[in-house]
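retry 2 of 3: previous attempt timed out while embedding calcium ion. Reduced batch size to 1 and resubmitted. Inputs unchanged:
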Amino acid sequence: MKRQIFLLITFFIAINLFSQEMTVERVEPPFWWTGMTNSNLQLLIYGTDIYETTPQIDYPGINIKDVVYVQNPNYIFIDLEISKETKPGNFNILFKFNGEVVQSYPYELKERKAGSASRKGFNRSDVIYLLMPDRFANGDPSNDDMPGMLEKANRQNPDGRHGGDIKGIIDHLDYISELGMTALWVNPLVENNNPQYSYHGYAITDFYKIDPRFGSNEDYLKLINECHERDLKVIMDMIFNHCSLYHWFIQDLPMENWVHQFKEFTRTNYRASIIPDQYSSEYDRNKMLSGWFDHHMPDFDQRNELLATYLIQNTIWWIEYAGIDGIRVDTQPYPYKEFISEWSRAIFNEYPNFNIVGEAWLQKEAITAYFQKDAANKDGYNSNIPCITDFPMYFALSSAFNENDSWTEGLASLYYVLAQDFLYADPQNNVIFCDNHDLDRFYSSVGEDLNKWKMGMAFLLTTRGIPMIYYGTEILMTGEANKGHGFIREDFPGGWQGDKKDAFITEGRTSEQNEAYNYLQKLLKWRKDKDVIHYGKLKHFVPEDEVYVYFRYDEDDCIMVAFNNSGHEMKALKTGIFKECMQDYNYAVNIISGEIINYLEALTLPPKSTLILELKK
Ligand code: CA
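retry 2 succeeded.
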């Protein structure tokens, strides 16, 4: 009898202790919506020994379909079905142990905004401005160092945090809009609470929270609203290949196969060519897909369905919560390609008119084309990613104006990139660029030659594809990647209180910077409503005698673009060659100078220059 009483007491003490210790620390996604196309929702519940409990939800329309218990007792995953009739509202998720409620966690289903499902993404009419938020403008010095955030600001360190933030971006949206940009891609803003190199944003420690040194989630909403008021679209940068070693769920892994694990650190080989390569070895394939991007970036195993669902829901959460207009997928070829297809399918299932661009840092056209939606791939693979970064075009652009023209070099290198467009399912959806946050700045690539820089901008804004321009290009910022990433991601002058120069205003720029700014602004504003550039056809002529000529045309308009890549010779265009494009036109307007050209038979180009003409009948 005594023994029985003892056991009974022990049992009640155990319950008591258990209910005291057991707390639900996180539920993700933190809230959701009614009226979504997919009626399923999977909640990740995190709390000490939560596996001992049975969850219960009493709310009309919500049904717990399944509860998944995993290796780690601190996690459970709850599969919910939210019926179409479910009303928005608040309820408690109850966690029961031996029939008793030991924890209760409030949850909200918000009402989906009207028109949310039909939102449109960025498109071919856009020009994207890419900026690195830590390096653009510091609108709020009070958030440079925040309690609980491991890395403190140090503007002297090229690899440290400099204090740029969301407020700084909002303060300069008029500048970006006045320059003529129509979309904004900001490098990741979500929390990167890492001891060092935290400024770039690609080592996430919380997928649902804006880094407090950039601002709050509400500040991000404000940024998007302010952008939309200026007709600027917002593209969110997302990462599905890896996260930070300091992410809370990496510190307490739900299960072994959440990430790829090795006995000793194993780095990816960064050879995405392996994915479509029909001769690739298991050894290389495994390294590519399972190796870590870096020491502090564990590599996700997206074959894990719970992780895949977590990442997909996180994306939908941000689209629905923040009202973004597009996504840039970091390192698209690195996650399992089947996951990328599934992820993209899920996004377009909710938002059929949305848009996504995948970063495919690849050398060759054919390999790049493999990763674009509806590619004619031999193995039947379809990424479902509509837009792809055009690195082959970047490589050609970064050297074309420095090279002497030959069969394959100089202007011919641009010609040959375009000549291979048959490989792409939709080359008009390639995102094109002269540089980005990982590459030499374009002004440095062309040896700080303003004429060559103008040729690059002219090409970028008149050829096929969706142009992307890296912040500071318009003021001729320089920097080479091999000196360190910090040097290609320098602070925009004038973004910080007390900066000696303020390049956001005309008076703060040198005459050369203003010449560049004005040239780019003129092109951008002209391009903005030129349907013929956005959607028109392209016809080009094989470069000859250091001259390359192409036309953009549709039923109503025709634009002629000509490049002279000679460093010293004035060139007279042999206009007879271009008869098939020019014969119906009588005169032209030079879109840079505004000059009317009445005699189209005699067109000349100074050395290292571009002529952009609107042909008129
Ligand atoms: Ca700040």
